[in-house]
Amino acid sequence: MMVKLNEQNREQYEQLILDTLEAGDRKQFLDTFLELHPTDQVDFFIKLKDDRRKRVYDYLSPEDFSHIFEGLDIDDQKRIYQELDEPYSSEMFNNMFADDVADFLEAMTGGKAEDILQKMDQEEAQEVKELMAYAPETAGAVMTKEYVSITSTEVVSNVIDTLRKDAPDAETIYYLYVVDEVERLVGVISLRDLITAQPTETIENVMGTRVVSVDDDMDQEDVAQLIKKYDFLAVPVVSKQNHLIGIITVDDVIDILEEEATEDFGEISAAKGATDVNVSSFKAARRRSPWIIMLMFFGLITAGVIGQFEETLEEIVLLAVFIPLIMDSAGNTGTQSLAVAVRGLALGTIKKGSIGKMVRREFGTGIMLGLICMAVLAITVTIMYQHWMLALIVGFSIFCTLSIATVIGATVPLIINKLKLDPAIASGPFITTVNDILGLLIYFSIATALLDFL
């Protein structure tokens, strides 16, 4: 019986497995280790030292170890692969799901992927090659070929017998896909409907014909949103001719959503490709530097704005005290609206007819924030500096700045999305810098216009 460890018995159980490994008791090790949940097997294995890992390779069959290898991240897979004998690794790849092998080979360089494919079983290798032929981040690239398909003329009892034989090799059997004589998708039946149907009933009479499927070239993020919308455990992937060619399961969707969220976070923070803590300092700096350099030049524009109003600053030096306040408030407010817009676009909650509503809402929010901040600043500045006109200038400037900053933060991602680009590239630092410049222009323009009253 498979054991899922909890925090109380984890250390004791792991020590027991380690003791059997150290003692060279292969049978006891297998009996104990293989009872673990696959995730716990991965956690235990990755903490082992080199000599102990080599003993694990001797004890576990390539098929058993394939489940561990699938659970490792790409960097660990590359490292572990170097430790494996060629026949062992080839048999391991033969027992892995095709999509997991394809993901690993995509990360290999120097012709190693082709060498691995040549040493694999040709039928297994062909499935992997088919997946690798699709464009990255499409349904075809992330689907798996291990699924169960049946025909509409089959009898329920026969399908159940088929499942007993084919289920171990399929990634999921919760949905069975019905195809015609040329492999076109014509229906679907859930495992629950199959079990509750009469044994003598034909599949045609119990299957559903309104099948939700995805094209092989659909973007992986759109696939994830579709599975989320329908609460599917899996979705079939079809060709342009509606031929069933694979499925995408919910565990793949979780990985897709994590990948897309990481990508968006990197875009919105101007750190794309450098958010992984395992990335070296040099690589992180190289990937972040283009944005930082671009924003540095934007900073020169900010300095130029201040220089344009040098005479105003010379007249009233006290105005310089509030420059950081204006800039920070504008940037922070714009970034908040940016997050709202990017999230809405990513989740698909912002539709064509609701764009105006969203922008109006953000503008209204900016006005309300501006009024609140204006009131607080007007009172605070008047008390601190005993200057009601200065308080009016600062307060009215913050009101105008926040009102405009929210609109900019909300509309820039919408414009970028309209241009068929990732809206997340309207990064926080970019929006902040733009709003800084506009905030300063508003502040000094108002101050210059009212200079005679100061």
UniProtKB/TrEMBL annotation:
One Pfam family this sequence matches: MgtE_N
Transmembrane segments: 291-310, 316-342, 363-385, 391-416, 428-451
Topology within the bilayer: Multi-pass membrane protein
InterPro entries: CBS_dom, CBS_dom_sf, Mg_transptr_MgtE_intracell_dom, MgtE_N_sf, MgtE_transporter, SLC41_membr_dom, SLC41_membr_dom_sf
Subcellular location: Cell membrane; Membrane
Keyword Zinc-finger on entry: no
Domain CBS, first and last residues per copy: 143-205, 207-263
Keyword Transcription: no
Gene Ontology MF terms in the entry: magnesium ion transmembrane transporter activity; metal ion binding
Keywords: CBS domain, Cell membrane, Magnesium, Membrane, Metal-binding, Transmembrane, Transmembrane helix, Transport
GO cellular component, as recorded: plasma membrane
Annotated SUPFAM superfamilies: CBS-domain pair (SSF54631), MgtE membrane domain-like (SSF161093), MgtE N-terminal domain-like (SSF158791)
Task of the protein: Acts as a magnesium transporter.
Family membership: Belongs to the SLC41A transporter family.
Complexes and interactors: Homodimer.
Descriptive protein name: Magnesium transporter MgtE
